[in-house]
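User: Predict the complex.
Assistant: Input components as received:
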Amino acid sequence: MTFDRIVTAAAAIAGVAALYGASVRILKGRAASALVVLPIIFGIPWGKRFPATDDALSFFAAAAIIRVWLYAREEGAGKLKRALAGATAVILIKPEVLYLAAAAAIIEGWHWRRAVGLRWTVLAPAAVAAAGIVSVVVTRFVYSPGFAIEGLEERLVLGTAWDGSNWIFSGTNIRNSLKPALTYGTTFYFALLAPFAALAYRYRKEWWFGPVFWWSGVMLALTLWKVREPVFRACPPMAAGLVVAFGVTGVRRLSEEFPALLRHLGCRGGSAAQPPTAS
Amino acid sequence: MQAAVRSIVRASMAAAKEFSPWSRSVITLAVLAFLVGATYVHRALATGPLIDERTWVDRSLAPLWGPPYGDNIYYYAVHHPSFARMVYGGVLHAMGIYEFEAPLVDYSKSAEWNFDHGAMVPLGIETPLRLVNVAFLSGMIALVYFGLKRILANRALAAAGCLPLIFNSAILGGPCPYIGTDAMLLFWLAAFWFTWITLGARGTWGVAALSVVAGFLVSTKLNGAFPVAGACAYYAATGKGTQRIIRPLLLAAVPLAMFVAMNPIYRAQDLGWAVKVGKDVVRIMLELKAKSTSKEWAEFTRAEVLRESFPYWYFFIPWAAVAATARREKWFAPTIVWASTVVFLNWALIYIPLLRYSAPISMGFLVAFSATGLTLVARTFRESALGREIAGGGR
């Protein structure tokens, strides 16, 4: 096994773990959270002999951002600086998630504006942006100055959108021409969005709703905007965003419809409008 | 934002009230017809020649069963049930075409080789046959629309529920241009669902009507039997007294009788002959599967077939939640039994996720999802502040 493949698998596992952790924070149930991330686990091409380290790191970074974002919302203004440090660390590993992290910093800064004051409301996104720029221009500049500066803006957006089709559809497998995935993948999930939105509407005042749906929405918007064919399976950050956001909502609704069944899955449910630990 | 939404909803409702219910129906159907024209008709006309078209012209012009006997005649009679051959044959005869002189396809050679050697159908014959597919798919949309309108009691929502089918990649790429049984199968699947939710609960006569539709369904393609089996199980489980036996029996006997009536090869000789023909149907299916899957490009695992033909599985939790919210509605059980049998039994049957094989799976899911999902959308709107305000005729 090559080093590239080890890093790819490690990043993918870390991404799944971050999403599982985020789901556990919301649902307070391990089995139910495992069900939420199950489609993501099956969607990752673990057996591919194609090292896609960069793609897997993008997936991990996108997943880590929602974990940090939920931490910021759950722990409250007192831990905002710590969350900011976490987001900055993610950006230093993968600067292409800057737009996503910046959106998180702006929204969280605004959410906690009364507690932290105007200075931190402005400082939070500025710090995240600075970390991203430093990461791209300084650290990448050392070994690839031209690449670091050229197309910077494009790279930052594409990093979050991530057309990972090299990873998913790698090789010259003739069977790909028989697979409907490409045609299905571009738009098939559009038909699901209105009923899923109605499903999610009920939980709009719960503490996790804002971070999860902003996170998912920003990735969806960037993907639709930038990727030529936003194939569902070839854009794992977008796919994970939709699967987790609506998966969590689905479990919450199922726990209301069938409380006994969900208790067996270890889901305690009953999320409040604000997290219990918020300061 | 909220004010803008409120204004748009109010303006839409005020505009709708300017028209009578009849006019609103006509406008909605006209919009759907326009969309069908922009999608199904366009795709049927724009798609280039397909490899199987030549054989379908040949089998539509051949007698369903009878002299002159030959290998092709027997193969055509047992490969698929006769309904599609009768329809295409009727259209060709209406056009005055009783014979077609062009080489048959050599399936051991490539499509290009066959086209170069003239094994293809000219536009003058291909176009009307593809428009037959469009007619059946339009019928499917109409049935889904009327079914959803009955469920949702709202024209706009019912039309919205048809959109995923009108723009569905599997339907557009597969049954729409492909001359074969698939477009008709989708029509009869929709007809079976519509009849089940409208007449299925109206006593034995309703079930008899359902069994007639089932007869056409199984006489179009054999996997049409899946929802019929589901309906038999449903009536056996939910019926009372003798109805528990009579209704499933009706649903089995009437389609079987219609199938034998529409496929004369089964009644050409005695019962032993009919059994032999039935065995040959299975043998041909297994041979085709063995021949296809012997090629490296056609080897798919069950998980791959699921992922390619039913990508909606990624969202199994939210769609289970959406379905759960509608579980107490009268139409829910028939719709879910119908959809489950169509989706999961077709998935279990197919071995290559071709678009036309995936189309019934997509359709089964999308009809059930639209019914349950749009019910939830309507309920959520009614319970929202804006919905309550409009219902109460308030500010």
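Chain B touches chain A through 49 residues (CB under 8 Å).
Let me know if you want any component modeled separately.
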